[in-house]
Amino acid sequence: MSDQNIYLPYLMRIAKITEEAPNVRTFRLEFVDETAAQSFDFHTGQFGLYSAFGEGESTFCIASSPTRKGYIECTFREVGRVTGALADKEVGDIVGFRGPYGNIFPIEQWKGKNLLFIAGGIALPPLRSVIWNCLDLRDWFKDITIVYGARTVADLVYKHELKEWEQRDDVNLVCTVDPGGETPDWTGKVGFVPPVVEKLAPSPDNTIALVCGPPIMIKLTLPVLAKLGFTPESIFTTLENRMKCGLGKCGRCNTGKTFVCKDGPVYTLDQLNHLPAEY
Amino acid sequence: MAETFEPKITAFVCNWCTYAGADLTGTSRIKYQPNVRVLRLPCTGRIDFMLLAKAFSRGSDGIIISGCHPNDCHYTSGNYHARRRWMVYRDLMDFMGIDTERITFSWVSAAEGAKWAELVNEVTNKLRAMGPYVEYKEMVAAGVE
Amino acid sequence: MELREKAKQLLESGAVKAVLGFEAGTHGRRRPLFARSAEAAGRLVWDQGCEQNLASYVTRKEVKRLGRMAVAARPATLRALLQLMAERQIKEEDVLPLALDDAGQVTELASAQAIEERLALEPQQIPAKDRELMDRLKAMSRQERFAFWQGELSRCIKCYACRSSCPMCYCGHCTMDCNRPQWVPVPSHALGNQEYHTVRAMHLAGRCVQCGDCGRACPVDIPIHLLTFTAEESVHAQFGQGAGASAKLDYALSTFRPDDKESFIR
Amino acid sequence: MAETYHLPQASLDPLFSVILASGRRILAPTDRDGRSELNPVTSPAQVAKDYVQTALSAKGTVFPKVEKLLSYATEPGKVELTDPVPNALPTVLFGIRPCEAAGFQALDAVFNWDYRDKFFNARLEQLAVIGVSCTRKDDACFCTSVGGGPGAVKGSDILLTPMEGGYLAEVLTEKGQALVALAPDLFNPGNGVDKAKLVVDVPAAFDQPALTAKLPALFDAGLWADQALRCVGCGACAFVCPTCVCFDIQEEADPRAGRRLRIWDSCGYHMFTLHASGHNPRDTQGQRWRQRVYHKFSYYPERYGMLGCVGCGKCTRACPVDMNLREHLVEASQAQVKP
Question: Contact at 8 Å (CB) between D245 and D110?
Answer without folding.
Answer: yes
